[in-house]
Every structure is written in C-alpha cells, then in structure tokens.
Amino acid sequence: MASNPAFAVTPKVGMAQVSVANSNRDGTTGTYVTVITGASTGTRIAEVTIEPTVTTTAGMVRLFLFDGTNTRLWDEITVSAVVPSATVKAARVVTLYNNLLLPNASWQLKASTENANAINVFAMGADL
C-alpha cells in the first residue's frame, strides 16, 4: 500500500474528432484517433463526452486503451440517429467513469466511430 494517497492535481481535458468509419473492435484494424495521453504520474479520466457535429446514423463510438504496444477495446457508447437543427439537439452522450486510468505517459485513450459521422470526443479528468 502506498504511504501517501494519490489525488488529482492538475485538471486535464483531451479532445479529438472521429469521422472515418471503422466497425472493427480489434484495436488494430482501421482508423483510431488519440483523445488524451496520460501524464508520467498517471491520469484519471472521470468523464467522456461525445458531441456529434452533423446528422448521425445509429451506431457506436468505441473507446480503446493503448498501453504503448497494444490497443484494446475499453467501452462502446451508443450514438442515436438524429438530424440536428435549430430546434433539435445533436445526439450528445456523457459517460462517467470511476475506474478509467492511464497509468503513465505511454498510455492513451483512443476513439473510433462505426459510421462516417463527424463526432467530437472529450475526455475530462486530472493528472495524478
């Protein structure tokens, strides 16, 4: 057990836009974008928000953890079919996590989208 507990020190926000269709769940095939990279002391991600910028078709945004060598599927976030307008909001989804950690600077949170819809992905947390 550590002699001193680690608390979040520096707030951190990562962001990226996914738009290239990738239906793969294997972490090696297709296009993935890096949303956030861990700090040398570790980074805790508390929330991931997806905010489409265009009309969406029903599908998934997939989150992957990259450890410096391997990329593995971490979570899938459902995207609804929505035609945003002046009176209709885009298909925003906020997912909270209490166990999403990037242990060091080799680790990254990556994202892909199943359909070719432009979707902003935000990761909010803090360096430890």
The count of helical stretches stands at 0
Question: What sequence of helices (H) and strands (E) makes up the elements?
Answer: EEEEEEEE
The 3D shape can be described as globular
Instruction: Outline the low-pLDDT stretches.
Output: none
| CATH fold topology | Jelly Rolls
- The CATH superfamily is identified as Nucleoplasmin core domain
- Rg is 15 Å
- CATH architecture title: Sandwich
Strand arrangement within the widest β-sheet reads 1-8-3-6
Number of domains: 1
The termini sit apart by 16 Å
Using the coordinates above, name the CATH class.
Mainly Beta
Oligomer: single chain
Total count of strands: 8
- Hey, roughly how much beta strand do the residues contain? over 45%
> Largest sheet, described in full?
4 strands, antiparallel
* Portion of residues within helices: under 10%
SS content category:
mainly beta
